[in-house]
Amino acid sequence: MADFDAIVVGSGLAGAVAAHELARAGKGVLVVERGNQAGSKNVSGGRLYTHSLAAVFPGYASEAPLERRITHERIGFLAPDAGFTVDFTSDGLRAEGRDSYSVLRAPFDQWLASQAEDAGAEYICGIPVEDLLMEGSRVTGIVAGEDEITADAVLLCDGVNSLLTRKAVGYAGPTPEATAVGIKEVIKLDPQVIEDRLLVPEGEGAAWLFAGDATHGVPGGGFVYTNKESLSIGLVVPIADLLTGETPIYQLLDDFKRHQVVAPLIKGGEVIEHSGHMVPEGGWDAMPKLVGDGVLVAGDAAMMCLNLAYTVRGMDYAIAAGMHAGRAAAEALTAGDTSAAGLQGYVKALENSFVLQDLRQFRKVPHFISGTKRIFDTYPAVIRDFFEKLFIVDSNPTAPVRKAGFAAAKQAGLLNLARDMKGALSSL
Questions:
Q1: Is the pLDDT of residue 420 over 80?
Q2: Rounded CA separation 276/64 (Å)
């Protein structure tokens, strides 16, 4: 007889939610988290679309440690000496079921873990899972420290660089092109200063994504998210580009913070956190198999992240995947069949949800973004030159807008512009 019905490896969003659902179904579940506590190893830019959270915790808004509701969307294009930003807000961003919040993962993940524990899950923290117990191709438990612990089902929610997933389902592992490094600082500021600088009402917040000189023209981007008493600021850059690039990511972040668009936002602030994390960027084509005999894979370990350039999603996918993984594992345990076939309910649930439908729909986007470097160097300069012609007034005759636009577009090459527009439309 197994030691537990289920073992969950990792107490990130997917792992904690999966453990909660298993415990709520009356199953004996153990969560093994390598950090000293849930959230101590987890990093994200900090924006959560809460529709998936509401499906598990309907009362989350009054309980969860959320930061600010995001009511302003901003997209910025940076040239070395200029910046252009699109700013959007609407009542729709405030509507129930469509809301999103900035979060700080340490307190938020601890809250999620407490929900799992309150439901009956057992926790072991501060111990990494070093290996899996196998009987043939079937996963039967884990090796953690000096202990071998068995279970009828093992849920792998241990992050993007999961060595366990490789052994469990034969995953070759993510490539440098399909993974990125995220670097982030949390900068403490007075709440009113945040609201004045980001032009948001009291208690509300903004999400601001950047392309271009944020990463010195290489693929990747920057972000600024408003918290209650701080700003989360950082960069995400594909590992493949960091390996071939000339500037290390810590220098890119320092330069980003000094850009004339960004520097006024953080002036006078105190850095209270500095962190880094690997990020899955490959989308659908980088995903492993989601089930095997005795095992399910969810969250970052399953590469469930989607960067559409105008928005970045991963946390809502992880929560939804954790919910479906926990419920499907509980059903399989009740039926007495935790083979790959018995766990297929997890895959079917994901296929009927936004998770796999989104990832499949936008499977071309990672390839388009990584293969279209003009987005990060040429087009920010084109935007700068066009708007300089519009807004700079001197003693020279003013050119017609159509000529200014045509002249700026020619810098990128009209054929390149048409090709990139076609690529964007076909991938998005």
A1: no
A2: 24
Burial 21-59 (b: 16+ CB within 10 A, else e): bbbbbebbbbbbbbbeebbbbbbbbbbbbbbbbebbbee
Read off the pLDDT of residues 164-181 as tens digits, 9 standing for 90 and up. Answer: 999 999 999 888 989 999
Say what the pTM is: 0.94
- The answer to whether residues 294 and 152 touch, using CB atoms and an 8 Å cutoff, is yes
Closest C-alpha to 353, from 327, 331, 320:
320
Place of tokens 């594909």: 238
- Confidence band for 424, pLDDT divided at 50, 70 and 90: confident
Mean pLDDT (the chain) is 93
The number of CA neighbours under 13 Å toward the Cβ of 299 is 27
Residue 425 has pLDDT above 90, yes or no: no
Out of 2-6, 39-43, 165-169, 223-227, which region has the weakest mean confidence (pLDDT)? 39-43
How big is the CA angle at 221 (ends 218 and 92), to the nearest 5 degrees? Answer: 150
Is the predicted pLDDT of residue 208 greater than 80, yes or no?
A: yes
> What confidence score (pLDDT) does residue 107 get?
95
DSSP H or E run through 188: strand 179-188
On the CB side of 348, CA atoms within 13 Å amount to 9
d(C-alpha 60, C-alpha 53), whole Å: 7
CA 65, CA 107: separation in Å to the nearest integer? 7
**Least confident piece of the model among 47-56, 282-291, 296-305, 361-370:** 361-370
- How far apart, in whole angstroms, are the C-alpha atoms of residue 239 and residue 181? 6
CA 86 to chain CA mean position, Å: 22
Cα end-to-end span (Å), the chain = 50
- Identify residue 376 by its one-letter amino acid code: F
For 334, half-sphere exposure in the C-beta direction (CA atoms, 13 angstrom radius) is 12
Instruction: Put residue 182 in one of left, alpha, beta given phi > 0 → left and psi -120 to 50 → alpha.
Output: beta
What's 243's DSSP letter? Answer: H
CA pair distance 121, 124, nearest whole angstrom: 10
DSSP 400: P
Find where tokens 């057992």 sit: 122
The pLDDT of residue 216 is 94
- Which tokens is 119 given? 């439901």
pLDDT at 30 (0 to 100):
98
| Residue 2 one-letter amino acid | A
CA nearest to 416, candidates 365, 363, 373:
373
Structure tokens at 396: 């020279």
